[in-house]
Amino acid sequence: MPDIAANMDRTAEITGIPGMELFSEVTGTDKGMREPDVLFDIPMLDGESGKVAFFAEQQHDPDADLPQKVFDLYIRVREKWGQRTTCIVIYTGSSPNVNTYVESCFGCKVSMEFRTYYLPEKDVEELRADNHPFARVMLAGRLALDAGDDIKLREKYAAEIAETTAEDENKKFILDFARRILRLDDPEISESVKGVYRVQTLPLEEYRKYIKLQNARLEGREEGREEGIEEGLKKAASSMLARGTPLQEVAETLELPVDMLQQLKPH
Description:
alpha/beta; 7 strands; elongated; 5-stranded mixed β-sheet; 15% strand
């Protein structure tokens, strides 16, 4: 939404509105609780603020039902706050033409048009060439659509995302999204691919420690010796075990023997 971005006041803080479930009846699924909606106050250069709502939902319903859901979302936000509101739908369905809702009743007619980011029509090579975090996430989604249920393609695309995503503060989030969208928890996915993602989606502090220790192993850096490679790995392992990470997964991720980890397990 470049026109919105151009009119935002970049010096002001964007404020999230916590606990905002516009569709409160959507409180649970077969996979547990979820919060489908997130709302933000967006400060603008003209001094006013506007609302941007992010409505996240897996598209299981028929495409034709989506415009009414977006309309209902818009009306609820507008009614509650009475402010300018915009919305965008990141859409993965089978038809690109879902951006208009029209309702009429005995001569009264309302119509709403909204923006869609229709993922299936996005160019894969353009997404590959763009290092912006949003483009990386969209690339993972686009490749997941292309791969479908093909195990080998999902593995190939997962390796590509891991190898080509820049080392920065966004990498863990991007790879964690890719792990989910490419369904890497599938037991048929190879352990080598899973292992890459296990390491790179560790909590950020543990990931940095892991990288430092690996560099120390490979290069014999002085700081690695000073910290004590084995002691550092034990600390990382203890932290992972305390969070409930399975013993075998810790052993594979940190390359430590299972019998040593047995001694580190909390009792």
